[in-house]
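Long-time lurker, first post. I've been practising inverse folding by hand and with some scripts of my own, and I keep getting stuck on stretches where the C-alpha cells seem ambiguous. Below is the full C-alpha cell string for one chain I'm working on. Before anyone asks, I'm not after the true native sequence, just a reasonable design that respects the backbone. If someone could post their per-position residues I'd love to compare against what I wrote down in my notebook.
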C-alpha cells in the first residue's frame, strides 16, 4: 500500500508534464490554423483582384470576336483602341492592355510605343484568346497589371490574423492547463483516498483479512 501511495504522490509531476504538452499542442493547432487561414485569404484576395482583369480581357476579346464575325479583320478593328483605353482607366493597377495578332505582334495597346512590336511582359498578365467563327485563334487580349496591390494587402491580413490568433492560442493553452489541472487534482485526491486503508469499506478489510 505504501508503494501505491508513493506512486500517486508523484503522479502530479507526470500529469503536469502531460498537461503542458497538451497545452502546447492546443496552441500549435491554433497557430497552424491561423497559418492556413492566412494562405487561404491571400489566395482569395489575389483571385478577387485577378477577376477584374479577367473581365476586362473578356470584354475586349468578345468585342473583337463580334467584329470578326461581321468580316472585319482584327488589324482593321480600330475601335478597339478607345475600348482598351476605357478598360484601363477603370483600374489604376493595369499597366498595359494589348490586343495581339496570331504572331504575338501588338496591334492595339494603351501604350502606343508597343504597337507594331512583339509583345513583351511588363508584369503579371491575364490572357484571353480571340477566335473567329471557325474557332481558330486570330489573336489575344492581354491585360498586364502590377500585383503591388496584392502584395500590399498581405501585411494587413497577417496583422489581422495575429490579432485574433495569438489571444486564441493563449486562451486555448491556458484553458487546457486549467481544466486539466482541475481534473488531475480530483483524480489525484480520489486516488489518495483509495490508497488510504481508513477509507476502505468493511468488506474490503474482511477480504484482506
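-- Answer (accepted) --
I ran through it position by position. Result:
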Amino acid at each position: 500500500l505504501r508503494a501505491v501511495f508513493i506512486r500517486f504522490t508523484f503522479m502530479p509531476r507526470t500529469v503536469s508534464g502531460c498537461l503542458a504538452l497538451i497545452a502546447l499542442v492546443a496552441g500549435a493547432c491554433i497557430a497552424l490554423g491561423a497559418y492556413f487561414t492566412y494562405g487561404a485569404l491571400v489566395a482569395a484576395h489575389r483571385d478577387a483582384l485577378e477577376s477584374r482583369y479577367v473581365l476586362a480581357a473578356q470584354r475586349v476579346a468578345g468585342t473583337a470576336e463580334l467584329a470578326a464575325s461581321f468580316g472585319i479583320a482584327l488589324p482593321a478593328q480600330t475601335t478597339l483602341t478607345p475600348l482598351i483605353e476605357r478598360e484601363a482607366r477603370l483600374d489604376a493597377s493595369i499597366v498595359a492592355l494589348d490586343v495581339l495578332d496570331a504572331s504575338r505582334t501588338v496591334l492595339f495597346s494603351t501604350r502606343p510605343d508597343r504597337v507594331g512590336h512583339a509583345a513583351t511582359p511588363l508584369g503579371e498578365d491575364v490572357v484571353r484568346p480571340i477566335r473567329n467563327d471557325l474557332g481558330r485563334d486570330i489573336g489575344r487580349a492581354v491585360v498586364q497589371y502590377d500585383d503591388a496591390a496584392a502584395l500590399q494587402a498581405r501585411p494587413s491580413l497577417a496583422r489581422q490574423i495575429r490579432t485574433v490568433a495569438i489571444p486564441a492560442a493563449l486562451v486555448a493553452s491556458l484553458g487546457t492547463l486549467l481544466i486539466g489541472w482541475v481534473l488531475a487534482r480530483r483524480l489525484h485526491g480520489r486516488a489518495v483516498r483509495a490508497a488510504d486503508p481508513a477509507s476502505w469499506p468493511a468488506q474490503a478489510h474482511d477480504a484482506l483479512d
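A couple of notes from the structure itself: Residues 99 and 147 are 21 Å apart (CA to CA). Helices lie at 2-9, 11-69, 80-89, 148-195, 202-208. Happy to go over any region you disagree with.
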